[in-house]
Amino acid sequence: QVQVVESGGGLVQPGGSLRLSCRVSEYAFSVHRMGWHRQAPGKERELVAAIGASGSTTTYADSVKGRFTVSRDNAKSTGFLQMNSLKPDDTGVYYCYIEGYYDHTFWGNGTLVTVSS
After folding, report:
1. CA torsion 37→103→27→51, rounded to 10°?
2. Calpha distance 43→8 (Å, rounded)
3. H-type helices in 1-117, by residue range?
4. Residues with Cβ < 8 Å from 92, sequence gap 6 or more?
5. Any idea what the Cα angle at residue 51 is, between residues 69 and 64, rounded to 5°?
6. What is the phi/psi pair of residue 58, to 5°?
7. Using an 8 Å Cβ cutoff, are 59 and 50 in contact?
8. Counting runs of H as helices and runs of E as strands, what totals does the chain give?
9. Confidence band, pLDDT 50/70/90 cuts, at residue 101
10. What are phi and psi of 89, to 5 degrees?
């Protein structure tokens, strides 16, 4: 069964950086699009970034363009979200997802990112 596990969250000061990882097990990782959503306390979930199967195409929310970089290592079945110049508004739970066949999407349980001084 597919497992999606995020890691790398934590507490960081404004202007700092974090790198999130998303390990996907027991799945055809390399043929599916994947990405990241986040949900701030008391707010609705939003798309942060997504990346195509080969890693050649990416998309970002306007709020993170120029600061975040999404990537993937298909040989290791792992996706990444590099977050630089972090702001307090970036605080939230970050969820990794990977698209599957037949309109099925798999989600991780999230990793908490807190940006605070």
Report:
1. -40
2. 22
3. none
4. 38, 39, 40, 41, 43, 112, 113
5. 35
6. -140, 160
7. yes
8. 0, 11
9. confident
10. -70, -15
List all residues 6 or more positions away from 29 whose beta carbon is below 8 Å from its beta carbon: 74, 77, 98
51-94 pLDDT, tens per residue?
999 999 999 999 999 999 999 999 999 999 999 999 999 999 99
Which are the contacts of 17, defined by CB distance < 8 A and separation ≥ 6? Answer: 82, 83, 84, 85, 86
Amino acid identity for residue 115 in this structure: V
Residue where the block lists tokens 């999130």? 20
Distances (CA, A) of 53 to 15, 82, 94, 112: 30, 18, 20, 25
What is the pLDDT at residue 28?
Answer: 85
Tell me the sheet residues that pair with 24: 4
The CA-atom distances, in angstroms, between 110 and each of 21, 35, 37, 53, 93 are 11, 12, 9, 21, 6
